[in-house]
C-alpha cells in the first residue's frame, strides 16, 4: 500500500497545482467586479424601498392637508355651518383625532375629538404657540411628532383662514399610525427594518414600538444629521457607518422627507444586506481548498473503501452470531409488515423458517391458507390472539411491552416492541423481542397454589391455638400466676403475628390468581377514614404519637368501593406509619379532591425509605433495610396488597419519602362508579415491572 501511494504522489501534486491555478485565474476575472456590483445592487434595492415608503407618507399627509384645505375654502365662504363641516371632515378622515377652529385671537372657538367629549374648559389659548404665529404669517404649520406613551404618534397641521371668516386657522391632530403600518410593511430580508426620525432625532415610527414610546434618540449618528440637513446618505460612505445595539455593522440608506423635515432610514446588518457578496467571497475562498481536499478525499476513500467493506462484513457476522445466541426470539419487520429479520430462537418459538418468509408481507388472512403461520400472525396482530394485554411503556426508553398468548404453538410470550430508527431519524421498521414466559407462569402458579394450600393448612391450627390461649388468659381453666400470664400473653402475641402472616399470604395468592373477591357498595369516605383512624387511638396514645385528620374535600358524594378490602389497604398504611414513627411523632391524614378523584394522604414523621430502594416498595416481601434493623416483625406484603386493592378500585397509590424525614403515601380513588374496573384480573404488575 505504501508503494502504491509513493508511485502516485507526483500525480497528486500536479493535480493540486492545476486546480489552484485554475481557481486563482477564475476568481480574479470575476470576483471583485461582481462584489462591487452586488454592493451597488443592495444600495439600489434599499433606496427603492425607502423612496416607495417616502412616497406613501407624502401621499398620506398631502391627502389630509388637501382635505383641510377644502374645509378651509368652505369656511372662508362664511356659510355658518362650521359644526356640520367639521363633523363631516372627521367622518371622512379616520386618522383625524381632533379638529379645532381658532379665533382671530388664537383661542380655540370650536373643537371636536374622535374619542373624547370636549367641553368649553377643554378649549385652549394658542395665541403664544408657534402654530398661531405661523398661520398669522399665512403659512401652513406642520408641528413636531408627539408621542404620548399611550397612543400612536400625532402630528398637528394648521391651515390659515381668511380673517373675514371670523377664524384664524383650522387645526387638526392627525394620528400617525399609518407611519407604523408603512414601516412594518417594508421587508428587506429577515432582519431588515425601516424607521422614521423626526427633526429632533427621535424615532417616531419603527416596527419595534418600544423604541418609539421609549423616545430613543439617534441624532449622534452622522448619517442622521446629514439626512436631516436635507441630503441623502448611505453607509457606503465610511463616515456614515454605525453599529446597532448588538455591535453589528449596519448597511443603511437614509432619505430626507422635506415636507416635515424628517428622515427615513432603511437598514439591516451588513452581514444580512451584503450576504450575497459575502457568500460569493466565502465560496471563492473555500473553493481554493476544496479542490485540494477533493483530490485527497478521493485517494483516501479509495483505501478506506476496502477497510470499510472488511469492517462491514465483520460486524454483520458478529451481529448474526449475537442474534443466533440469544435465548429470546427477535423478529424485525417494516411498515409494510414484511419480515426483515428473524433469529433461530424466534423460528423455534413460532415454528417457521426465516428463509421461507423473508420479505413476505404478513397479513391477517395469511393463516387461512397456511395454518403454520397462525402463531406469527397472532404475534404481528395481537388483537387476533387468544389474549393480549395492554401495552406498557418501559421507563427511560421508547420501547413498550405487552403479554401475548398465541395458539399455534400454544405459548405465553412477553413481547417487547421498539422502533428501528436510522441515523437520519426515519423509522425503518419495528422490532419485537419474544420472551417465553409459559414455564415461568406455570412455576408462578404452582408457587401461588402451594402458598395458598400451606396457608389454609396453617390457619386452622393457628386459630385453635389462639382460642386455647385466649381461654387460658381469660382464666376459664383456672387462675394463673403473673409469670404464667406473661408467658401466655407473649405466646398469644406471637400466634397473632403468625395468623396475620398467613392471612397476608392468602391475600397475596388470591390477588395473583384474580380471585380476591370484591363486593362493591357506596361508602362515605370521610366517615370511613375517621373510623379507621379511631382504631389506632390506643396505640398512638401509648407511643405518644399525634394523630390528625383534615377533610379539605368538603361534601363528597359516596364512592363505589369494597369497604372491607379498602379498610385492609388503608390499615396497612396506618400500621406502617405507627410502627415506624418514633414516640412524640406526628401522623397526618388528609382528604381532598382532584377532579374526578378523591385523594387521601397519610404523612408521618418516621424513619423514611432509602432512595435506592424506592422501586421495590410495592413488591412482595419487601422491607426497607433501615426498618429491618429496628423492627423485626412484618411480612413485607402490606404495601403489595394495598396497591393491588387500590388498583382494583380504579385508583392509584404513590409516595414520597426521605430517610429521617418521614414518608407520605397518597391514594387516589375515583368518585364516579364508571371509573371502577368491572372485573378482577390476575395481577401481572410485579413481573412486568421487573423487565
Automatic annotation (TrEMBL):
<keyword id="KW-1003">Cell membrane</keyword>
<dbReference type="GO" id="GO:0005886">
    <property type="term" value="C:plasma membrane"/>
</dbReference>
<dbReference type="InterPro" id="IPR004358">
    <property type="entry name" value="Sig_transdc_His_kin-like_C"/>
</dbReference>
<keyword id="KW-0812">Transmembrane</keyword>
<keyword id="KW-0418">Kinase</keyword>
<dbReference type="InterPro" id="IPR003661">
    <property type="entry name" value="HisK_dim/P_dom"/>
</dbReference>
<dbReference type="InterPro" id="IPR050351">
    <property type="entry name" value="BphY/WalK/GraS-like"/>
</dbReference>
<dbReference type="GO" id="GO:0006355">
    <property type="term" value="P:regulation of DNA-templated transcription"/>
</dbReference>
<keyword id="KW-1133">Transmembrane helix</keyword>
<feature type="transmembrane region" description="Helical">
    <location>
        <begin position="280"/>
        <end position="303"/>
    </location>
</feature>
<dbReference type="GO" id="GO:0000155">
    <property type="term" value="F:phosphorelay sensor kinase activity"/>
</dbReference>
<dbReference type="GO" id="GO:0004721">
    <property type="term" value="F:phosphoprotein phosphatase activity"/>
</dbReference>
<feature type="domain" description="Histidine kinase">
    <location>
        <begin position="453"/>
        <end position="673"/>
    </location>
</feature>
<dbReference type="InterPro" id="IPR036097">
    <property type="entry name" value="HisK_dim/P_sf"/>
</dbReference>
<dbReference type="InterPro" id="IPR013767">
    <property type="entry name" value="PAS_fold"/>
</dbReference>
<feature type="transmembrane region" description="Helical">
    <location>
        <begin position="12"/>
        <end position="32"/>
    </location>
</feature>
<keyword id="KW-0597">Phosphoprotein</keyword>
<keyword id="KW-0472">Membrane</keyword>
<dbReference type="InterPro" id="IPR005467">
    <property type="entry name" value="His_kinase_dom"/>
</dbReference>
<dbReference type="GO" id="GO:0016036">
    <property type="term" value="P:cellular response to phosphate starvation"/>
</dbReference>
<keyword id="KW-0808">Transferase</keyword>
<dbReference type="InterPro" id="IPR003594">
    <property type="entry name" value="HATPase_dom"/>
</dbReference>
<dbReference type="InterPro" id="IPR035965">
    <property type="entry name" value="PAS-like_dom_sf"/>
</dbReference>
<protein>
    <recommendedName>
        <fullName>histidine kinase</fullName>
        <ecNumber>2.7.13.3</ecNumber>
    </recommendedName>
</protein>
<dbReference type="Pfam" id="PF02743">
    <property type="entry name" value="dCache_1"/>
</dbReference>
<dbReference type="InterPro" id="IPR033479">
    <property type="entry name" value="dCache_1"/>
</dbReference>
<dbReference type="Pfam" id="PF00989">
    <property type="entry name" value="PAS"/>
</dbReference>
<dbReference type="Pfam" id="PF00512">
    <property type="entry name" value="HisKA"/>
</dbReference>
<keyword id="KW-0902">Two-component regulatory system</keyword>
<dbReference type="Pfam" id="PF02518">
    <property type="entry name" value="HATPase_c"/>
</dbReference>
<dbReference type="InterPro" id="IPR036890">
    <property type="entry name" value="HATPase_C_sf"/>
</dbReference>
